Amino acid sequence: xxxxxxQGWIAEQRAYNYHRTPDRSIQTVEAARAxxxxxxxxxxxxxxxxELPNLFHAIAGRIRPVPMEHDDPDSSKCWGWKDHALxxxxxxxxxxxxRRATLISLDLLPSFYACSENYGDLYDYLExxxxxxxxxxxxxxxxxxxxxxxxxxxxxxREARMSAENAKSRFARALVELQVGFKVLPIGVAEAGAWxxxxxxxxxQRHFPELPEQARQISRDQARRVLVLRxxxxxxxxxxxxxxxxxxxxxxxxAELDRTIATLLQEGVAQEVRVKKLKHPQLVxxxxxxxxx
Length: 293
What we know:
293 residues; alpha+beta; Arc Repressor Mutant, subunit A; 2 domains; 4-stranded mixed sheet; 3-stranded antiparallel sheet; 10 strands
């Protein structure tokens, strides 16, 4: 028999899991590290239309708009802890899910990397470029880092021959492209540029040299299973469209996603449930049901 749950129950469980209650608000950088380890992956800021935990709301202990003021205490913690953590290998930080700033625990990082087109060689990018899967701008940025080592954004634009004002947007798009492809990531902040604030970028494989070997032990089917199940553990309930949208940048085919969901259902670690006032069935992790119903 298919269980029926309410939207109110889902909202309560999400508030708890996301630390969006005053008594669970994150007060220290150590607690922020524990939060990322617990959820496995989250956004840095809340993203409209995306159901996923985020560090800012966990710090605030509630849902609130992202403030424009630089001296907002919640925003200051979020920025400050993130900058402090860059390069320390506490977690993985870069633009990924929905092409927005994403935090990934080191435990789940190999599963994400296993879904990428990387195979462990610094020169894998050439095959992607020849296949038309990497833009010329991204290739130039990557090769600048390959030749010169970590570079701040200002120097990186210069070395990639993209310093002109009319190349600014193409540079930004290519930098996101490389982060989505697990090619590069920010590892620090430099006092450079007009704002005296610029990310320092490095090649992922050089910053996490053990990552390719860790990912090599994980099949793509296994990686998808791990990531979707953790997502369900965090968001409590989701339909296939929600899951597909979130992991869109990983280029899973509809057949691959359907196979992953079928595996979770067959193993009994996920169930389909009815949610009051929602038309389509939702997937819920069995752990969430057992823990809370």
